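hey
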C-alpha cells in the first residue's frame, strides 16, 4: 500500500519540512498511526493508519489542535500535559483514550518525541500510536477475571472461615451437649440408684393413670413385680372403696399442679392390706406440659401402731397425772391434817418444809419455819437429826420438851433418811406427842394388872379352896371318928396345910414386888415359875404341858415382873382357849442374828391346840379392849406386846383357824458389855 504524505497548507498551519517529510515517509512504512503536530499541538501530519485507527479523515484533522480531538476534559488535560512534557523533556510515552469519529473509544499507546529540524529551525512533535484497545480489553477482561477470581477466593475464604467458625461452634455445642448428656445420664443413673435405695415405693404414671415406672422398693412393699404392673391402672392398688373420694381429691390437687399428701389403704399381691402414706406430685415434660404423676408410698403400719401406742400412753399419762394430782392433794391434805408433826430438813439441818401440825406444835406460822435451823426451833431435835445425816440410818429418841405455853410434852422423835437422786442427804422428821398415850398406857397397865390380879385371885381361891375342903373333911372325920384314926387324919391335915402354905409361898414368889430395875433374866426360869404357879389349873383343865426348853439359852436384860406377866397372860389365854383340855407346847430357842445387831434373838413360843384365831383377827387381838370373852378385858395382849416392845423385842401370833394358836415372843439377847454392866450393878 502506498502512503502519500500531505503537506499542511499554510493557511491551515505550519508546513512540514521536507526533511521531516522524508523521515515520516520511513515511519509510514511501519504502518502505524502517525500524527505530527507543532509544538503548540496543531496537527500537521495525519497518516492513513491514523485515519483507520481514529476514524478521522486526514483533511478533517490537519490544522486542528490535537487537544480538540475529544470533548472529554480528561483527554484535553492529559494531551496538554503530554505536549508540555515532550516540549520540555523531548519525549513522552503513555496511554491515551481516544474518541473515534464514530464515537467508539480506543486506547492507544503513544510514543511522542520532539524533533528539531535545524535547517528549518523548527520543532515538531511526532507521535506514533499503537492501538492497544484489544490488548486493553484482554487486560481488562483478565483483570476482571482476576478480580472476580480474587473475589471468589475471598468469598470462598470467608465462607470457609465462616464454615470453620460454624464447625467450631457446632463442635463446641456438641461437646457441651455431650457433657450435658453425660451429666444427665449420671443424674439419671443416680436417681435410679436413689429410687432403688429408698425404702418408700416410687411409682410413676402417665396422664391416663397407667403405671410407667415401678421401683424395686414398690415390688418389695406391694409384692408385684415391674413386669406385672407396667401399664396397669395405679388405682387398682387402692383396697378400700371409700378411698375413691380421696382419689378424686388427689387427682384435682395434682391436676392443679400442687403436691397431694394423704393416706390410703393399699392392697398387696398376697391379698393383705396395709395403711400407706402417699405423696403425689405432677411430672412435666420438656415443654413444661403435664405428662403424668409420681407417687411415693410408705408403709405406715408401724407408725400407726406407734401413734396409737403413743396416744394410749398419753391417755394413761394424763390419767396418771390426774391421779398424781389427786394423790398430791390427798397427801397434802393428809400431811396437813396429821396429828404427827412432820418436817423436811436439808443436809445442813435447815428446815425446808413442814406440815401445819409442826408449825402449830411450836406455835409458829407455817411460812416462818422454812429456812430456820432445826436446833433454833427445838434444840432437842438437832442431835437426832445429825445422827441420821451422818450415818444415813434411821434414828429415834424420846425427849421431854417445854413448850412456850409452859406445858411439858413427851415427844417420840423419828428421823428418817431421804436420799435424793444427786446423793445429797435429807431427813424427814416425825414428831409424835405421846404424852397422852403414855398416860393412857399407864392406865391400861394398871387395868391389866387389876385384871390379872383378879384372875389370879380366882385361881388362888380355887387352889386354896380345894385343900381347905380337904382340911374341913379331915376335921369333920376327926371329930366324928374319934381318936382311932386321928393320926392318919392329922397327917392328911398337915399335907393339905402344907399345900396351902406352898401355894401362898409360890404366889408370894411370883408377886414379889419388883423394883422396876433392869436385870439379867433366864427366860427358861420365868417359864418354869409360871407353869409351877398354874400347874393345878392346867391339870384341872385337862391340859398336858409339853416343854422344849433350849439348853444354854442366852439371857435377856429387862424387868423380870414384866416378862412373867407376859408369859402368864399367854398361858392363861391358852387355858381359856382349851376349856375341854388339850396340849400346851412351851418352847424356847435361839433365833438367828438380826441384821442390825450382832446379838441373837431369844424366842419364847407358847402354842395351844385350841380353836386358833381367824386370819382377819390376828392383828386385831392386839388392839386395846378387843375381847371375845364374856368377862374379858381385852387388854392382856395389848399390854403384853407393849412390854415386849419396851424390851426391844416383838410379839406376834401364827395361827390357822381350827389348828391352834402359836404366840411368839422375840427378845434381844443381852450383849457382853450390857451383861457385865448389869452384873456389876447387881453386886
Ligand atoms: P382377854 O383375854 O381379856 O380377852 P386378851 O388381850 O388377852 O384379852 O385377848 C384378846 C383376845 O384374843 C381374846 O379375847 C381371844 O379372843 C383372843 N385370844 C388370845 N389368846 C388366844 C388363844 N390362845 N387362842 C385363841 N384366841 C385367843
Amino acid at each position: 500500500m502506498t502512503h502519500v504524505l500531505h503537506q499542511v497548507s499554510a493557511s491551515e498551519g505550519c508546513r512540514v519540512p521536507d526533511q521531516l517529510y522524508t523521515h515520516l515517509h520511513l515511519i509510514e512504512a511501519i504502518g502505524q498511526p502517525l500524527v505530527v503536530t507543532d509544538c503548540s499541538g496543531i496537527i500537521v501530519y495525519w497518516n492513513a493508519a491514523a485515519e483507520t485507527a481514529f476514524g478521522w479523515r486526514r483533511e478533517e484533522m490537519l490544522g486542528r489542535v490535537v487537544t480538540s480531538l475529544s470533548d472529554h476534559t480528561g483527554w484535553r488535560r492529559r494531551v496538554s500535559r503530554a505536549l508540555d512534557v515532550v516540549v520540555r523533556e523531548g519525549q513522552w510515552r503513555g496511554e491515551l483514550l481516544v474518541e473515534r469519529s464514530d464515537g467508539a473509544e480506543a486506547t492507544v499507546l503513544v510514543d511522542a518525541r520532539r524533533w528539531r529540524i535545524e535547517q528549518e529551525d523548527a520543532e515538531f512533535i511526532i507521535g506514533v500510536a499503537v492501538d492497544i484497545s484489544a490488548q486493553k480489553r484482554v487486560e481488562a477482561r483478565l483483570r476482571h477475571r482476576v478480580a472476580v477470581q480474587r473475589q471468589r477466593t475471598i468469598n470462598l475464604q470467608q465462607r470457609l472461615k465462616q464454615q470453620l467458625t460454624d464447625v467450631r461452634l457446632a463442635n463446641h455445642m456438641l461437646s457441651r451437649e455431650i457433657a450435658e448428656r453425660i451429666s444427665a445420664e449420671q443424674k439419671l443413673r443416680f436417681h435410679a440408684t436413689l429410687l432403688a435405695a429408698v425404702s418408700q415405693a416410687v411409682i410413676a404414671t402417665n396422664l391416663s393413670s397407667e403405671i410407667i415406672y415401678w421401683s424395686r422398693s414398690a415390688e418389695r412393699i406391694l409384692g408385684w413385680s415391674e413386669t406385672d404392673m407396667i401399664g396397669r391402672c395405679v388405682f387398682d392398688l387402692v383396697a378400700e372403696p371409700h378411698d375413691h373420694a380421696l382419689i378424686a381429691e388427689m387427682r384435682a390437687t395434682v391436676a392443679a399442679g400442687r403436691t397431694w399428701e394423704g393416706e390410703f389403704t393399699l392392697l398387696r399381691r398376697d391379698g393383705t392390706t396395709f395403711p400407706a402414706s402417699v405423696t403425689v406430685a405432677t411430672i412435666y415434660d420438656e415443654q413444661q406440659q403435664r405428662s403424668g404423676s409420681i407417687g411415693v408410698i410408705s408403709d405406715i403400719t408401724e407408725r400407726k401402731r406407734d401413734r396409737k401406742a403413743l396416744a394410749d400412753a398419753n391417755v394413761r399419762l394424763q390419767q396418771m397425772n390426774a391421779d398424781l394430782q389427786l394423790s398430791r392433794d390427798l397427801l397434802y391434805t393428809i400431811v396437813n391434817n396429821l396429828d404427827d408433826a412432820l418436817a423436811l430438813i436439808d443436809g445442813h439441818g435447815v428446815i425446808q418444809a413442814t406440815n401445819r401440825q409442826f408449825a402449830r406444835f411450836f406455835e409458829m406460822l407455817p411460812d416462818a419455819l422454812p429456812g430456820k435451823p432445826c436446833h433454833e426451833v427445838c434444840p432437842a431435835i438437832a442431835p437426832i437429826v445429825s445422827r441420821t445425816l451422818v450415818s444415813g440410818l434411821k434414828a429415834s429418841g424420846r425427849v421431854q420438851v417445854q413448850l412456850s405455853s409452859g406445858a411439858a410434852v413427851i415427844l417420840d422423835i423419828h428421823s428418817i433418811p431421804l436420799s435424793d437422786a444427786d446423793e445429797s442427804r435429807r431427813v424427814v422428821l416425825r414428831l409424835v406427842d405421846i404424852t397422852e398415850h403414855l398416860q393412857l398406857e399407864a392406865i391400861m397397865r394398871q387395868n391389866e394388872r387389876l385384871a390379872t390380879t383378879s384372875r389370879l385371885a380366882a385361881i388362888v381361891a380355887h387352889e386354896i379352896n380345894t385343900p381347905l375342903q380337904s382340911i374341913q373333911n379331915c376335921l369333920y372325920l376327926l371329930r366324928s371318928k374319934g381318936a382311932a384314926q386321928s393320926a392318919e387324919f392329922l397327917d392328911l391335915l398337915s399335907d393339905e396345910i402344907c399345900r396351902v402354905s406352898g401355894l401362898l409361898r409360890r404366889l408370894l414368889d411370883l408377886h414379889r414386888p419388883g423394883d422396876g430395875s433392869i436385870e439379867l433374866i433366864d427366860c427358861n426360869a420365868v417359864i418354869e415359875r409360871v407353869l409351877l404357879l398354874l400347874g393345878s389349873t392346867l391339870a384341872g383343865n385337862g391340859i398336858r404341858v409339853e416343854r422344849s426348853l433350849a439348853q444354854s439359852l442366852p439371857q435377856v436384860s429387862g424387868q423380870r415382873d414384866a416378862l412373867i406377866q407376859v408369859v402368864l397372860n399367854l398361858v392363861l389365854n391358852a387355858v381359856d382357849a382349851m376349856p375341854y383340855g388339850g396340849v400346851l407346847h412351851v418352847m424356847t430357842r435361839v433365833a438367828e442374828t438380826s441384821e442390825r445387831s450382832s446379838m441373837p434373838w431369844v424366842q419364847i413360843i407358847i402354842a395351844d391346840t385350841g380353836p386358833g384365831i381367824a386370819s382377819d383377827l390376828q392383828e386385831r387381838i392386839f388392839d386395846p379392849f378387843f375381847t371375845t370373852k364374856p368377862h374379858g378385858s381385852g387388854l392382856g395382849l395389848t399390854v403384853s406386846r407393849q412390854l415386849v416392845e419396851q424390851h426391844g423385842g416383838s410379839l406376834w401370833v401364827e395361827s390357822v383357824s381350827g389348828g391352834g394358836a402359836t404366840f411368839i415372843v422375840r427378845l434381844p439377847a443381852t450383849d457382853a458389855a450390857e451383861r457385865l454392866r448389869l452384873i456389876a450393878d447387881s453386886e
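Confidence is low (pLDDT under 50) at residues 1-13. The longest helix spans residues 133-197.
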